[in-house]
Amino acid sequence: MNTNKLNINKSLLSSLIFSMTLVGCASTTPPPPSDPWTGWNHGTQDFNDSLDKHILKPLAKGYQYITPTFVNDGITNFFSNINDIGVTFNDLFQLKFSQSGQDASRFLLNTTAGVGGFVDVADRLDLPKHNEDFGQTLGFWGVPSGNYLVLPFYGPSSPRDTLGLIGDAALNPLTYVSIFSGGVVNAITGGARAVDVVDHRAELMTKEKILDESTVDRYDSLKSSYQQNREYLINDGKSSNSTDPDLLDDNEDTSGKGAIGKGGASSGSNSGNGGSESTSGSKTQSGQSLKLSEPK
User: Fold this and answer.
1) Does 254 map to a domain?
2) Rounded to an integer, what distance in angstroms lies between the CA atom of residue 156 and that of residue 162?
3) For 81, which of 9, 10, 100, 155 is 20 to 30 Å away at the CA?
4) What angle do the packed helices 38-51 and 218-234 form, to 10 degrees?
């Protein structure tokens, strides 16, 4: 009996020493120059993926199951229409005056004839939709992206695009409704944002499947897709890379659009909220999606 205990203790001690050795080696191994925050990023992506797997994805599947197609489309259109306000301002910030007129017209037309934005009348009239966010505006004026950064809940990002999220929030009317309204209105606004997140996560289901089936290293694939997509959007589609820039573009229309995240906790992502490309039928989500390493 004592011999067995001694052997067990030796095994445990050996395992402990081996584990500590591995941790020590990992902690002393310098991160690659191209991804200096890789330790934080991997940990955050694991957190986002776990949250997405256990909470957001089941909610998105339930949402898809119980929500009729026309209701789902209406909700997507509603938040896309609100987002057009920020898109119009970012058009102006980037000196795209003709484009800003088109996006302002989309907002006015959909808000009035489209019953508050639930019907995309502008799309039926072939009025193009453009996707711009404040992160792209910063890139337009020469602000460097910075290192790759995975944000909790939101997913793939960068210092520039993280700052862009603040600008997008400042251009979203729901932000001011939340700040200046009472408890009941705040509850309604919070509920609307939750629906937006779940709706956005549901939209990314198809792209998530493509990503998971076509990649071996999920982290590197998300990082590469996100960075290529942002470069593509900031340069108005002028990309030297042949990789599909829309793999993680949550603004691209997919009939199956139907997460993570606006970022949701998305396993795809976040790619950012928009681009300057014009895509007929494309829907944009409000910048706030839980894109859990995209998440998307």
Assistant:
1) yes
2) 10
3) 155
4) 100
